[in-house]
Design goal:
435 residues, eight-stranded parallel β-barrel, two-stranded antiparallel sheet, 12 strands, 46% helix, 10% strand
């Protein structure tokens, strides 16, 4: 059934950099080969159900601005209409994947039993639509942060009944993701943190969170879900102190609870910035520790200081992100999910298409630049030269020695090193040649 929302908008095609068509791809050509793989298979784009369809245009200072054919989102009829619109947009964009929370695809019913019934109903509906479409489920997740029951957390809540409600909800969403053939399942602890230590038992809450995640992993194996379990780092907002603050914090948490071999990370650009890092830093760290899984691609307004979830438009930043993705072997089950939303003044269906078209072009340009840098090898050569001293036998032996033996060598050889240039500006100029 057509919703009429996207009437008059033709499927988006690649027309090249010389085209002036605002609803054409200028750089994203899904079939072009990059490092021996189709561009589409490298990037693995996904549409975020929550921002593209469920978000109504509100912000902390004002209510909804969007009027969609599926509003208000309080019935199964509206949920089906929203799903119809979603697949219309997937077809227009040629997107290979989509991502969702349970609260995005079904109305909130209040009780778990009613939520489960509505989730089962809409998942059957989406599964039917998926069978006749290109787009597949990249990942599903549970919204354990919007409803007032989760105001003090889900897995970390002081009330065991909230923990139980959250666990039952995640089970239902993991089951649904499995039914839809999802390639990953994501847990974002939007309220897994605290506002004040005056009423918080840190050790207890983190133990609860660790046990909760272990049960998710156990259920994954019980039902035969072959996808990847992902945790998404997020600092501060909305809780003042988040237990999943950044990649390093999450890695430490996973190792503490023995989950490092079972869980990987879904890394968001906006979250990286809020944590005081760069996007490429977070990706590179996850790759280095063998825990990289997937990315949420967006950007923040650097003048606002909060998570504005805007579509990406910074090619150099995106290029460095994909450089580390490619250097780490590329995506396996993960992909590039546009966790990005329109500005609340961008009201039209065409705005929603244009936003994704531009973002896909930015990512395509970034990918091509990243691939060209890898093929050229300039950054790798610079790294090799900078650390060349560590390849010498005496340097390797030093790592297996002790302080006494090192001190004797320094005295015997009269070692008194002079600093060597890190050549940062030259390397920045090198990157700029490609972007």
């Amino acid at each position: 059934m057509t919703t009429g929302f996207f009437d008059g908008i033709a499927p988006v095609r690649f027309e090249g950099a010389e085209s002036d068509n605002p609803l054409a791809f200028h750089h994203y050509d899904p079939d072009v080969m990059v490092l021996g793989k189709r561009m589409e298979d490298h990037l693995r784009f996904a549409v975020a159900w929550w921002h593209a369809f469920a978000w109504e245009g509100g912000d902390p200072f004002g209510g909804p601005t969007f009027v969609r054919p599926w509003h208000p989102q309080d019935s199964m009829e509206a949920a089906r209409r929203k799903a119809d619109a979603a697949f219309e947009m997937f077809d227009i964009l040629g997107q290979p994947f989509y991502c969702w929370h349970d609260a995005d695809i079904r109305p909130e019913q209040g009780s778990f039993a009613d939520n489960l019934a509505r989730l089962d109903e809409i998942v059957d509906y989406i599964a039917d639509k998926t069978r006749g479409a290109k787009a597949r489920c990249l990942w599903g997740t549970a919204n354990l942060f919007s409803h007032r029951r989760f105001m003090a957390g889900a897995a970390t809540n002081p009330d065991p009944d909230v923990f139980a409600f959250a666990a039952a909800t995640v089970k239902s969403c993991l089951d649904a993701t499995h039914r839809l053939g999802g390639q990953n399942y994501v847990l974002w602890g939007g309220r897994e943190g605290y506002e004040t230590l005056l009423n918080t038992d840190l050790a207890r809450e983190q133990d609860q969170m660790g046990r909760f995640l272990a049960m998710v992993v156990d259920h994954k194996h019980k039902i035969g879900f072959e996808g990847t379990i992902l945790v998404e780092p997020k600092p501060q907002e909305p809780s003042k102190h988040q237990y999943d603050y950044d990649v390093a914090t999450c890695i430490g948490f996973l190792r503490k609870y023995g989950l490092e071999g079972e869980v990987k990370l879904n890394i968001e650009q906006g979250h990286a910035i809020l944590a005081g890092h760069s996007f490429e830093h977070e990706i590179a760290l996850a790759v280095a520790e063998g825990m990289f899984g997937s990315i949420d691609m967006n950007r923040n307004d650097y003048q606002s200081g909060w998570d504005t979830d805007q579509f990406p438009n910074n090619v150099p930043e995106v290029a460095l992100a994909y450089y580390h993705v490619l250097k780490g072997g590329g995506f396996t089950t993960g992909g590039t999910n546009f966790d990005a939303k329109l500005r609340r003044q961008s009201l039209d269906a065409e705005d929603l298409i244009a936003a994704h078209v531009g973002a896909m072009d930015v990512c395509a340009r970034g990918l091509k630049a990243a691939a060209a840098m890898l093929a050229d090898g300039g950054l790798e050569q610079a790294l090799s030269e900078r650390y060349a001293g560590w390849e010498r036998a005496e340097a390797q032996a030093m790592l297996h020695g002790d302080l006494d033996s090192i001190a004797r060598r320094v005295l015997a050889e009269g070692i008194n090193p002079e600093p060597r240039s890190g050549r940062q500006e030259r390397l920045e100029n090198y990157v700029n040649r490609f972007v």
